[in-house]
Amino acid sequence: MILPIVAYGAPVLREVSQDITPDYPDLQKLLDNMWETMYASSGVGLAAPQINKPIRLFVVDSEQIINNLEEDEENLYPGDHGIKQVFINAKIVETEGDDWAYNEGCLSIPKIREDVYRPEKVKIKYLDENFQPHVRTFHGITARVIFHEYDHIEGKLFIDYLKPLKKRMIKGKLEDISKGKIRVDYKMVFPK
């Protein structure tokens, strides 16, 4: 089932999410719905707060990005083959490498894209959908998507990384989003 995406301004997007346990109700159904919602919205990642659930859960499919690179872009992310992965109760262990810019967007903040600087690599510990523990290091565009989704479970948004002038320049657009004065081709729910 395709779920509505929570728009900028909703309090859940600013909450630090809670860990879940294996007995979380209907977890597999929730995961199926999150994947379906993400793909229906043309996303490459989706965090539970974006569907109004303040839990430490997100999904990432960076394979889509890697598989759709143009021929002249194939060397942009060497060694990054992309992933399709569920992250439960994730915690960043360490980051490394130089910060690099990428033009990020967010399903909860539609029609706004800005360059955000993030480290090259992220080491993260997490549970998969079977609650099996993992500690892995990701790099390239996959690390980028993980950083972005991880921020959601920490109550952060990509716009928090923008310089004050950029934030002032997009303030009106953000207000329009929070008031529902925007049209998108996926289901959204706006703050009241």
From TrEMBL:
Chloroplast among keywords:
no
A biological process (GO) of this protein is:
translation
Instruction: Report if keyword Magnesium is assigned.
Output: no
| Active site residues according to the UniProt entry | 149
Summarize where Fe cation binds, as residue positions. 106, 148, 152
CDD domains the UniProt entry points to: Pep_deformylase
Lineage: superkingdom: Bacteria
Keywords for the protein's UniProt record, in alphabetical order? Hydrolase, Iron, Metal-binding, Protein biosynthesis
Catalytic class of the enzyme: hydrolase
EC number(s) recorded for this UniProt protein = 3.5.1.88
Give the co-factor note: Binds 1 Fe(2+) ion.
Q: Which InterPro entries match?
A: Peptide_deformylase, Peptide_deformylase_sf
Recorded catalytic reaction(s): these are: N-terminal N-formyl-L-methionyl-[peptide] + H2O = N-terminal L-methionyl-[peptide] + formate
- CC cofactor: Fe(2+)
- Show the GO MF annotations: metal ion binding; peptide deformylase activity
Functionally, this protein is described as follows: Removes the formyl group from the N-terminal Met of newly synthesized proteins. Requires at least a dipeptide for an efficient rate of reaction. N-terminal L-methionine is a prerequisite for activity but the enzyme has broad specificity at other positions.
Protein family: Belongs to the polypeptide deformylase family.
According to UniProt, the name of this protein is Peptide deformylase
Annotated organism of origin: Chitinophaga barathri
Q: Which gene encodes it?
A: def
